[in-house]
Amino acid sequence: MDFLRPQTWADALAAAADRPDVVPVQGGTDVMVEMNFDLHRPTALLDLNPITELTTWEENPDGSLRVGAGMPYVRIIAELGDRLPGIAQAARTVGSPQIRNRGTVGGNLGGASPAGDLHAPLLACGAIVEAESAARGTRMIPADQFYVGVKRHCLEPDELIRAFHVPPATGPQYFSKVGTRNAMVIAVCSFSLALFPAERRVGTGIGSAAPTPRRATAAEEFLAAELDWDGTLDDAVARRFGDLVREAASPIDDVRGTADYRRHALAVMARRTLAWSWRDHRNNGEAA
Ligand SMILES: Cc1cc2nc3c(=O)[nH]c(=O)nc-3n(C[C@H](O)[C@H](O)[C@H](O)COP(=O)(O)OP(=O)(O)OC[C@H]3O[C@@H](n4cnc5c(N)ncnc54)[C@H](O)[C@@H]3O)c2cc1C
Q: Pick from 231, 237, 230: which is nearest to 274 by CA?
């Protein structure tokens, strides 16, 4: 096996172009586990760790945040938790402290597992994935176009994820995950909600309850239209929102849970995250 260790982003793109067989590795918390279990034996690894720009973040001129693909979860929680509360909540549920030290959002995106915890808040917040190739340059991919199948994303073999872009929260954001225990657990299913009160807009993300992470767009449209943004939360609206989120899922029965349980849990998580968000919205109009 070849081990490629480019020192610059340009060299990494050149290596990905030269070797379509290469497997990028950042934290290695997915790649190395698969190799250790002999599930996958790449012919070449592309170690992105020397490229320090991948572990930085900055504010774009339009106020949105550009977060490097290699930012580990612990730093997202510590440095961006106030501006990206939904993403930070999901990051806090990933694995153990060791995994959160090494694991990255870029790696979660690269794996594109329907059960990856970061996908739901990335969808709810309207994140955009910045991908690049030596041949075609930069491509900005909205998160809801990024996932194309079970553990499959829309990247070409020569493309790498450089960063993700996301607006800072302008309202409450929540992430909720059901697992067989409280920590170190793959989601049975997960849900994320983001409210954008100034725009009277709602964002959602469903995890682990369909072949790909997905939004519940009918639920978003219903809630945005039916919420009395300056008044109280109507129980019937919350219930219908939960029902629409449940209907947006297409889960399967597997070792972690049944399809029926996942649908039920999603409706509960949708109503709960809405209640939490509404409490924050009415209390101070700010994200929790
Ligand atoms: C014990 C344990 C517990 C875990 N718990 C959770 C959990 O609770 N929730 C959860 O979501 N995940 C969990 N994971 C899975 C894993 O930690 C996460 O998916 C993590 O985000 C992977 O990030 P990484 O940087 O380690 O990725 P890597 O292992 O380095 O890479 C993962 C995938 O992304 C690709 N990739 C990496 N960087 C790029 C890039 N810049 N461009 C293109 N492709 C790229 C790789 O080729 C690979 O396919 C767990 C793993 C372990 C071992």
A: 237
Could you tell me the pTM of the whole model?
0.97
Q: Beta 160-166 vs 152-153: how paired, if at all?
A: unpaired
Atom of ligand 1 nearest to the CA of 105: 21
Q: Do 206 and 266 form a contact (C-beta atoms < 8 A)?
A: yes
**Quick check: 122 and 106 in contact, CB under 8 A?**
no
Q: Residue of the nearest CA to atom 41 in ligand 1? A: 161
For 189-243, how does the pLDDT look when each residue is reduced to its tens digit (9 = 90+)? 999 999 999 999 999 999 999 999 999 999 999 999 999 999 999 999 999 999 9
Which segments within the chain are labelled E, that is strand? 2-4, 23-25, 44-47, 57-59, 65-68, 128-133, 137-142, 147-149, 152-153, 160-166, 173-178, 189-196, 201-207
Q: Calculate the alpha carbon distances from 2 to 76, 105, 128, 221 in Å.
A: 31, 25, 32, 49
pLDDT tens sequence across 64-103: 999 999 999 999 999 999 999 999 999 999 999 999 999 9
Residue with the smallest CA separation from ligand 1 atom 7 is 94
Ligand 1 center to residue 239 CA distance, Å?
35
